[in-house]
Amino acid sequence: MSAVSTPPGTSTSARASASVPESAASVPEGAAGPAPESAAASAPGRRDAEATKAAILKAARYLLARHAHADITLKGVAERAGVSPPLILKYFGTKDALFARVMSFENDATGLLDAPLDDLGRHMVRHVLESQRERGADPILRIVFAPLHGAHGDILRANFRAQVTDRLAERLPGPDADLRAELAVGTLLGLGVMYGIARGPRVRESAIDDLVERYAPTVQAHLTP
Fold this sequence. Notes:
By secondary structure, the chain is mostly helical. It has helices at residues 12-19, 36-64, 74-81, 85-92, 95-102, 106-112, 120-135, 151-169, 177-196, 201-205, 208-223.
């Protein structure tokens, strides 16, 4: 898998701090682990930390879809996430390190493509709709805002190609796999735009099962023609 591109100026240590869990201390081999009550006591703290990181990433995604990268401040991200700017620095290191995570599609593509090929169209359509409706975050829609971000938009496009369309193309048998992958993903983006940006009232009020039945065959036709 291609490495995630990162915005200029992101240091190696900043990238590491974005990916290493908050608590990474190892226990020497043969040493006794923490007592059960100690582990239980620390679990709420770990859950709170993960929830905070998720809120920060969601806020950064929201702002990246509405403002140029240069106009987004850590203060603005913190206010939307309901945290303090120093907490963002604690978890992500720098603004560039935070947005390197936001501009990556690696984890999103894993969820989007997690189905057998014969059922992948249905899965992708359902995943996009449930992500928007239930979690308020489309897995791939932020690519449509790449023109807002100058050089950072180029990073967003490069990540999208490597982590979404190229990754999908690798799974497709037959001719024109690269083209078919782009067409399938483009079809999904159209649905995401109608649901999340145009906010089509008929689409938004329809049951997800109904939308999947109607839309998935169009996506699947590109995957297994």
